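Reviewer 2 asked us to include a model.

Predict the structure of this chain.
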Amino acid sequence: HEGGLLAIHSSAALVLDQTTGKALVEKQADMVVPIASITKLMTAMVVLDARQDLNEVIEVTSEDIDHLKGTRSRLAVGTTMTRETAMLLALMSSENRAANALGRHYPGGLPAFVQAMNRKARQLGMFNSRFEEPTGLSSNNVSTANDLARMVMASGAYPEIRIYSTTSSASVEIRGRIQEFANTNTLVRS
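Predicted model (structure tokens):
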């Protein structure tokens, strides 16, 4: 921060005043770029909009393995958990298998889930955004800083998303063993 200028290394950025909605800092806010794990906010909104039972037990299967980027997961195939725990792990620890399992356990499966993600994006006025899957592993999940601001504002209206994304760590029983999961966001953790 020299001479009143913020050094923003991101190719695109937008800082909004949440009360007024006024843009405080903008940098290529309409540039369409891959959005990675921010995708999981849309995943959570779609699950909550569908009013699916958060206590229902869902299972991680081989279909949830990331063959795209080969990322690792602490959730082995065969792991079962409530939909609520899957959402917590997706939002807090960016667990890809949990996010994918949420999409698969949607009425109509993954194709219907992805359709719902794109429908929700249009409803929110995110016209430069496109979703292909629920984790963010695909670089075809794209958006702009302006569209993401709309998504973040909308997701803030869901108490579950606010709580799960700002939880610093949680003890979760996975296959009969208690495991500690931490938030991937250093700012939240500290």
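The chain has a mean pLDDT of 94. Residues 109-123 form the longest helix (15 residues). We have added this to the supplementary material.
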